[in-house]
Amino acid sequence: MRISELAKATGVSVASIKYYLREGLLPEGVRSSPTQADYGDAHVRRLGVIRALIDSGVSVAEVRRVVAMLADPPENPNDLLGAAHAAVTPPVDDDVDTASAQELIAGLGWQPGLCDDATVAAIARALQNIERAGFAMPSAVAAEYVDAMRRIADAEIAHVPLSSPDEAVRYVVLGSVLVEPLLLSLRRVAEQIASGRRFADGVTESPD
Amino acid sequence: MRISELAKATGVSVASIKYYLREGLLPEGVRSSPTQADYGDAHVRRLGVIRALIDSGVSVAEVRRVVAMLADPPENPNDLLGAAHAAVTPPVDDDVDTASAQELIAGLGWQPGLCDDATVAAIARALQNIERAGFAMPSAVAAEYVDAMRRIADAEIAHVPLSSPDEAVRYVVLGSVLVEPLLLSLRRVAEQIASGRRFADGVTESPD
Fold this sequence. Notes:
homodimer, 208 residues, mainly alpha, elongated
């Protein structure tokens, strides 16, 4: 199909498609004349991935790394997950003290070398921001965070499809990134419902 | 203290402090001369909050709404949570179909009116992006997301301190926002550990 038909099929404007071509997110079509190229179903699918990632807040540079991985996947799903996380993890300056972070993730069975340093540094940075704001996170709540994330990760990894490397890559890369906005908004709904339940009658629990 | 001393006490540069003053995030100090103002401990605490929010990815406009709420808190913690979420929720165009979102959060005990529409729309948008990317989220995993977020929210809301409205506001506003980066990076560590466990020996589970 021509670029105008690709735009129609995906709901992505011709201008955006040209931008993704220039940025190397979308592979070139097959030249059919000096001014025209032909696009196929692979382009339609790739555009769906690109738009979903960008709409989820992933940067163009990160999308480029993700689609490169989809095109040339690591063989072992375990290498894959590290690479997927690295692709969408902004670099963290590593002058942050990771002692409290390490203590927290010991509850996940963490040991040095079991996951990449950037993610541990991201936890340390988050904890530092929480402390700097003077927010006292109750330890029972922190324990619930660790436990809930362990359950989630166990369910996710148990469902990595092994039918083909392609499928495993899609599952791991897209699943880690695209689910983040879902989890955060689910938490907000859950908080509002729990709060409504606890404070339905205002702050003071009246005896009647 | 003078602005240079405030900078020293907080590790925030004079230029940034002046920017926060201009943007209305930080209240003016007490004028001590035509060219000098005096700052106190409240400024030190406020700067800690501002920097923590900005470093967590909250926009200047959102920080302004959060600090306004800290200065003039709603009386009922339940109103507070909705207001806190509204302050840090980017407007979502509401032309999104929320049917699947509503089905998912029915598992949280959601009913119309129990939480704000913007958050439900955010869930719908996240689900739409997941679908658009061609990512098939296993229903068992989706159920785990819902359950994990319910546990987290229940623990968080159970710990809202009622000692003073100020404390409740700090807990709810800062807790909802500042914990988000922590949760996302905890999930990534948990995924890498679970993946290491499942795929330690490569994709094929060899019998030995």
